[in-house]
Amino acid sequence: MLAAQGIPPVPPVPPPGSELSIGGSLEGIAAIVLLLGAGLIIAGLIWPLIRALAKRIEGGGPSAEMQTELDSLRERVRLLEDIAPRMSELEERVDFTERIVAQGREPDRLPR
Questions:
Q1: Model-level pTM?
Q2: What's the CA gap between 59 and 62, in Å, rounded?
């Protein structure tokens, strides 16, 4: 009969404890804020790695300064490899000298 008069029906009242709210409970809001904060922190920590990886994929190879240092280190390694046989020979000579000195023998002297 109310519908015939143009008055809409009144919705039923929800039972107590089942409150409806647009924003949700404080625990739900805190969880959302916590998840967003953690996501931002993780993104901030990972961002430099992502940028470096993107640079490498683009083919941004080593800079001129790094290439110069790399060439210098390669030259030093080559020189050390060239010196290795000489060092081995010197070690053998030192070992021989130590053995001779360790004998402690007095040299033969000429009579006066």
A1: 0.35
A2: 9
